[in-house]
Amino acid sequence: MDSMYRPQRLNSEEVCSVKWDFIKMSEQEEDLILRMYRLVGDRWEIIAGRVPGRKAVEIERYWIMRNSTHVLPPSSKS
């Protein structure tokens, strides 16, 4: 994909300065994000346009957290 069509990404200073809480998505949202990612790749603005109530940055963070071996979801211990 041509880089001129990609939205500008946050620089590492901006990303590091923001505390990331684990983002919960419904099964339907997860499925839609996965299917859209397969179609358009990491074009988060396009994916966010298909997931009602979600911003591109939320979806990108969710994707990174879900697919990273370093970030784990919060414990579900009761």
UniProtKB/TrEMBL annotation:
Record's GO cellular component terms: nucleus
Segments forming domain Myb-like: 21-69
GO biological process, one term: system development
Main location: nucleus
Record keywords: Developmental protein, DNA-binding, Nucleus, Transcription, Transcription regulation
Entry GO MF terms: transcription cis-regulatory region binding
Lineage top rank: taxon: Eukaryota
Subcellular location: Nucleus
InterPro entries reported for this sequence: Homeodomain-like_sf, Myb_TF_plants, SANT/Myb
Name the record gives this protein: Transcription factor TRY
